[in-house]
From TrEMBL:
Protein name: SWIM zinc finger domain-containing protein
Name of one Pfam family that matches: SWIM
Organism: Thalassolituus pacificus
GO molecular function, one term: zinc ion binding
Sequence ranges assigned to domain SWIM-type in this UniProt record: 54-87
Organism superkingdom: Bacteria
UniProt key word Zinc: yes
Cross-referenced InterPro entries: Znf_SWIM
Keywords: Metal-binding, Zinc, Zinc-finger
Length: 461
């Protein structure tokens, strides 16, 4: 049996689930790990915070799964960790007869998929007979089914209310923590930044605000690359964004922008089955950014610019993968043109999207999109007036020039404006006059992601 790590990544509902699963890869947390090769099944017992371990099982062939934990994410972190361990270390699993709880799960799966035992699957029949002897489920009436569905909805509402209450309490502690830092002095916070933010980030994880927790935990790395005179101003700005996000969610917990910034984005299946209409057209890949995060995940952002005027700004494809999986070969690189459908996440200013379907367009004549008419300052102001917790805005600029000063710092001159660049190193071919440039602007510095050279075409930076 084989289970590629890519499958585990694709099954994960969001990046925070992968991060949580990574913390469970230590086999010491699993007092039982077993497998039945003939049934393509693996199982394990994961010791959680309760007295009894969670019973976790998965089908390696069709990637079905089940876990007894109360998580509302599917698959949960325990299933992801079980499959992750199997992908990297099959020798950790002991070949054995499935225990009763695994056999019962297999039996239910066979019944639901075929309706009856199949004569050409003798092993599945044996498991079914052993597991279900005397335990056939009664046929429920329409009234009983309706009652069962009502109970399920009531439990789901209760779980949602509990989650919202937990988040509300966590955000209250975050705002109190920020006030305490202001009262005792932000200069002192800067000197002891990493341990302090790690403690409040851990509290936010417990409160189920995992995406905000990851952002809080990344604060020391965000400030580390800035000069000392700039760090305090950037710290104040970031703390203010956290407060604005907290207030936005508390006033409208169902707002998709605020929920995504706190809890994480919907997974691909949820978005494709939503009411979001796909946007068709031709797109040009104008930039990408690959970063390794503190939680062990690799963040891969790719920006596509519309060539047919089907939307007003760039679309961002965001992908996450475990760092242990190694470098991934993406099909889209800067300068690639595609034709296809994008589905945008619901937002007041749609940017993040997924590719529903596409094909790469092979063309000799590259079509360069038109630059935005807004200045970087105007574009960032418009973004933060709508989503005040957003750090940067992506922009396509017209004719520009890349320069380097005597201190080896880079500057981009565009429309008579000089923009300082955050890049520490740039390709030699990127220097000089250009037809266009794609940047990410945060109000202080621009990150140069690509330029369009008259001689060399589009160059990734």
């Amino acid at each position: 049996m084989e289970l590629p790590l890519q499958v585990v990544q694709d099954l994960a509902p969001d990046q925070s689930s992968l991060g949580a699963a990574k913390k469970l890869l230590n086999t010491a947390k699993w007092p039982m790990l077993g497998l039945a090769s003939e049934l393509n099944t693996i199982w394990g017992q994961c010791q959680g915070s309760g007295a009894n371990p969670y019973l976790t099982m998965a089908d390696v062939a069709d990637h079905g799964y089940k876990c007894t934990c109360p998580s509302r994410k599917f698959p949960c972190k325990h299933v992801l960790a079980l499959m992750w361990i199997f992908s990297e270390s099959q020798t950790s699993f002991v070949e054995a007869t499935p225990p009763e709880w695994v056999a019962e799960w297999l039996s239910r799966r066979r019944r639901s998929s075929s309706g009856a035992a199949s004569t050409d699957e003798p092993k599945a029949v044996v498991v079914k007979d052993i597991a279900s002897a005397g335990n056939d489920e009664p046929v429920l009436s329409a009234e009983e089914l309706a009652k069962k569905e009502a109970q399920r909805q009531k439990r789901a509402e209760s779980a949602m209310q509990a989650t919202e209450q937990s988040i509300r309490e966590g955000l209250g502690e975050l705002e109190l923590w920020i006030r305490d830092q202001q009262r005792t002095g932000l200069a002192g916070l800067l000197k002891d930044l990493r341990p302090r933010v790690r403690r409040i980030a851990a509290r936010l994880v417990d409160a189920k605000a995992s995406t905000l927790a990851a952002r809080v935990d990344e604060l020391p790395s965000l400030l580390a690359g800035l000069p000392m005179e700039r760090q305090l101003a950037r710290l104040v700005e970031e703390l203010g964004m956290w407060v604005l996000l907290s207030r936005a969610w508390q006033s409208a917990p169902q707002d998709p922008d605020a929920r995504r910034a706190l809890l994480g984005a919907e997974n691909r299946e949820q978005l494709l089955h939503s009411q979001q209409m796909p946007v068709n057209g031709r797109w040009l890949c104008v930039g990408e950014r690959i970063e390794t995060r503190r939680d062990g995940l690799v963040s891969h952002a790719t920006w596509l610019w519309p060539l047919d005027g089907q939307c007003a700004s760039a679309a961002m494809l965001q992908d996450y993968s475990p760092a242990s999986a190694g470098k991934r070969e993406a099909s889209l690189r800067v300068g690639t043109q595609i034709e296809g459908e994008l589905v945008f996440y619901p937002s007041r200013m749609p940017e993040r999207a997924i590719l529903a379907q596409y094909r790469i367009v092979e063309t000799e004549a590259v079509s360069w999109p038109s630059a935005v008419e807004q200045s970087p300052q105007q574009a960032l102001f418009s973004l933060r007036r709508t989503l005040p917790w957003q750090r940067a805005v992506p922009l396509l600029l017209g004719g520009c020039c890349l320069m380097q000063d005597k201190d080896a710092g880079y500057w981009l001159k565009a429309s008579e404006q000089l923009l300082p660049l955050a890049n520490n190193d740039l390709p030699l071919l990127a220097h000089g006059e250009h037809l266009a440039a794609f940047i990410s602007w945060d109000g202080a510095k621009a990150e140069l992601l690509s330029v369009v050279s008259p001689q060399w075409g589009m160059i990734a930076c």
